[in-house]
Amino acid sequence: MNGKQVDIYVNVHKGIRNLITRFLFQTGSTDWTDASAVARLQPEWEQVTKIIRSHHAHEDQFIHPLLSRITPGGHRSYEAEHHAQLDVLTDLEAHFTRLADDDVPQAKRAQTGLEFYRGLNLFYGDFLLHLHREEVEAERALHSLCIPEELMTTMGALLGSIPPEEMMAYLDFMVPAMNLPECAELLGGMKAGSPPEVFKAMADRARKARGESDWQKLEALLVQ
After folding, report:
1. What is the pLDDT of residue 2?
2. What angle do CA 26, 187, 156 make, to 5 degrees?
3. Whole domain around residue 25: which residue ranges?
4. Taking a C-beta distance cutoff of 8 angstroms, is the pair 142, 38 a contact?
5. Total structural domains within the chain
6. Is the domain of 155 the same as that of 168?
7. Are 117 and 224 within one domain?
8. Domain endpoint, select from 162, 179, 210
9. In this predicted model, what pLDDT tens digit does every residue of 8-38 receive, in sequence order?
């Protein structure tokens, strides 16, 4: 061990904040009376909901059992927040489905779109508070009661459970949201734990997400 603290939450949370914030901007500028604009937005919305559900599931499966073991009941408030957020997400999905209905009159579609936008902002506000609580409270508990090797093993198991296609999607919004040392650490871990051909595919995806100028700096950090 090099003594560096194992990060549990911050980097992936940076990426998810990036993903949802970009989508919020898109919803704010969308003309909901234009069915083709709603159709263009649908893949982005599906990615947002898929990633949030995936992220919560990863924490429920890998992080919460650890919190439960080191602090009896310590996972329950986070798990309850997950359940509540997923319930709201389901309601938002139903709202978006109505927006995608071609038979909805334009005036009704405009009002429904505004309601969706407002509801999404309320969801995001609550979600941001949840992410902050995990990064501050849960992270502190994990580091005070677990040895670094245990946290590394847990994170390795979590990352190893993510299918390659899903991992590529995570890279698309995580890499632009992280600073260069964080990106280098993430990619260095992937390089150490992946076959060369798999890492090359992930590196190519990260290069595209970050841009050529930053990629040259990242390559220099990776060889240090």
Report:
1. 46
2. 100
3. 1-162
4. no
5. 2
6. no
7. no
8. 162
9. 999 999 999 999 999 999 999 999 999 899 9
Task: Indicate if 44 and 54 belong to the same structural domain.
Answer: yes
Question: Which amino acid type is present at position 9?
Answer: Y
Measured distance CA(83)–CA(59) in Å, rounded: 12
Residue type (1 letter), 45? W
Task: Name the residue with tokens 């990619």.
Answer: 187
What is the C-alpha to C-alpha distance for residues 157 and 154, in angstroms, rounded to an integer?
A: 5
Whether residues 87 and 117 share a domain: the answer is yes
pLDDT, one tens digit per residue, over 130-152 is 999 999 999 999 999 899 999 99
- Find the CATH number of the domain harbouring 31: 1.20.120.520
* Residue indicated by tokens 């069915």: 35
Query: What is the distance between the alpha carbons of residues 37 and 59, in angstroms, rounded to a whole number?
Result: 34
- Which residue from 77, 72, 40 is spatially nearest to 59, judged by alpha carbons? 77
Kindly state whether residues 192 and 88 are assigned to the same domain: no
Cα separation, 103 vs 106, in Å, equals: 9
pTM: 0.91
